[in-house]
Amino acid sequence: MLDIKQIRNQTEKVKAALDKRGSYDLQPLLELDSQQRELEQRRSELQARSNEVGKSVGQKIRAGADPKGDEVKSLREAGNQVKQEIGELEPKERELKAQIESILLTLPNLPSDSTPVGKSEDDNVELRRWGDELIPADGEDRLPHYEIGEKLGIMNFERSVKIAQSRFVTLTGAGAALERSLISFMLDRHTGVGYNEVLPPILVNSASMQGSGQLPKFAEDGFKCDRDDLWLTPTAEVPLTNLHRDEVLTADQLPIDYCAYTPCFRREAGSYGRDTRGLIRLHQFNKVEMYKFVHPGSSFDELEKLTADAEDILQQLKLPYRVLELCSGDLGFNATKTYDLEVWLPSAGKYREISSCSNCIDFQGRRANIRFKESGKKGTEYVHTLNGSGLAVGRTMAAILENYQKPDGTVEIPEVLQKYMGTQAIS
RNA sequence: GGAGAGGUGGCAGAGUGGUCGAAUGCGCUCGACUUGAAAUCGAGUGUACCGAAAGGUACCGUGGGUUCGAAUCCCACCCUCUCCGCCA
Predict the structure, then answer these.
(1) Is A306 helix (H, G, I), strand (E, B) or coil?
(2) Whole-number Å distance, CA A242 to C1' B49?
(3) Residue A141 carries which DSSP code?
(4) Is the model's pLDDT at A344 over the cut of 80?
(5) Is the pTM of this model over 0.90?
(6) What is the tens place of the pLDDT at every residue in A45-90?
(7) pLDDT tens, position by position, A10-51
(8) Count of C-beta atoms within a 10 Å radius of residue A24
(9) Stretch A318-324: mean pLDDT, rounded?
(10) ipTM entry
(11) Could you give the CA distance from residue A96 to residue A33 in angstroms, rounded to a whole number?
């Protein structure tokens, strides 16, 4: 959520930043805001008067006045009149506040100053590449991951349709073991450098979904449990953000680094024809997420560290990848600055997103009301939050199956995973 | 699912209609004492909004209601705990 005060006081700046993403008209919001403040002023003056009256009734009675006498009676009437006026203003003010809130909840974060300006993913900026892209020699048979996976008998899509729907997968044998190995490897790596491992609820309530930015705008993309106010988490970012919702942390607690493995559930509304085969786009997938609550002064440095932590997984797995900085038009709703990591998929001959690392600055902190207090300083400040996949597990498996595929149809296990798997290859 | 108890400040906990934003204790901050520390003593210590400021308003789980006045009374909801049932 953006800061209404900032919108009020630096309207042009905010508008210019928002326009890098799309087109936004802030005038209606500002209009509501000034009406609301005017009403608030009048209402609080009336309330002050009402408190006055209430107090003096008490004083009179204690001083011996007749509670049923004229003096008290006229005060009561005065009190009633003020109360009636307040009663007229209150609903209006509440309505205005609700309108302001609902507009604020749909405004995306402002792109950072350093974010490249652009309209779509075509305008994202490639920053660096790591590793050698594997390009199959002529006549060499390189299968896409879903074909090699089915051939090896470790992954089944047809039967998953029977169990659930399309866009689900069932892993068996070495496939299941590889998924589990990847999760353990990633968690071990991150906890090894100080991330605190979390295994959160994966059903989350609406307040949590709003706190981390999924609601109200992206309700269609979530799976909802109809009889309860609970949603299946689309990402561990939701429970992790809300771990500290409505809390005031102390400055010396920061930074707080968490990592979490969770399944993630997404309807993928609006991407019906895309990536219909394989592990790339499923309704349910596994992800290891990294999440940081940090001091505002260090959040951009922390983003670099977070991205490096995600890259390290790819490097240890020896998977070629590239790093993109998202342009303003492709930035996610919560983010002010985002690096995407894309892994090389030989079957497609291109890079596919495997991690997204974002600095959300105070956007989620304000939404979820997560603040910190600096000792000795008055008041509180919103924390800055960052999140990054480290990594999307299914896509990592896809990349391994394709990049580690041998001409004879077997798949080698990356060295760092061998101790987790207990084998050197899947055949 | 059934029965009961309860939700108050960073924490513990008092407060059943009127100077209660809220006693007290712990914690925390500053100071005194001390070679230093502990202990002790003294002072201070919620958040948000409006306002240039003075100041004002709101907040005792949430939302309504009664009243001149509500942490306190009434209603609804949410949550937590205990016991019983069921269960990995």
Answers:
(1) helix
(2) 24
(3) -
(4) yes
(5) yes
(6) 999 999 989 888 888 887 777 777 888 888 888 889 898 899 888 8
(7) 999 999 999 999 999 999 999 999 999 999 999 999 999 999
(8) 15
(9) 98
(10) 0.85
(11) 8
Per-residue flag: A371 CB under 7 A of strand B: yes
As a rounded value in angstroms, the CA-to-C1' distance for A375 and B35 is 30
Tell the residue number behind the tokens 């991407």, with chain if given.
Answer: A271
How many of the other CB atoms lie within 10 Å of CB of A223? 15
Task: Tell me the mean pLDDT in the region A106-131.
Answer: 96
Provide the positions of strand B that have an atom within 7 A of a protein CB: 10, 18-19, 28-29, 47-51, 56-58, 64, 67-69
Contacts of A15 (CB under 8 A, 6+ apart): A24, A26
Contact assessment for residue A417 and residue A181, using Cβ atoms and an 8 Å cutoff: yes
Matching residue, tokens 């050698």: A132
What is the distance between the alpha carbons of residues A159 and A423, in angstroms, rounded to a whole number? 27
- Phi first, then psi: what are they for A150, rounded to 5°? -70, -35
Compute the distance between CA of residue A46 and CA of residue A86 in angstroms, rounded to an integer.
7
How high is the mean pLDDT of chain A? Answer: 92
**DSSP letters along A266-304, please?**
---TT-TTTT-STTSS-SEEEEEEEEEEE-GGGHHHHHH
Q: How would DSSP label each residue in A360-416?
A: -TTHHHHHHT-EEE-TTSSS-EEPEEEEEEEEEHHHHHHHHHHHTB-TTS-EEPPHH
Q: Order across the sheet with A381-382: list the strands.
A: A248-250, A371-373, A381-382
Contacts of residue A76, Cβ cutoff 8 Å, sequence gap at least 6: A57
The half-sphere exposure of A306 on its side-chain side, counting CA atoms within 13 A, is: 33
Residue A31 one-letter amino acid: E
- Residues A86, A91, A94, A99, CA torsion sign: negative
Looking at the annotation, which residues of A are catalytic? 266, 281, 353, 356, 395
Contacts of A117 (CB under 8 A, 6+ apart): A20, A111, A123, A327, A328, A329
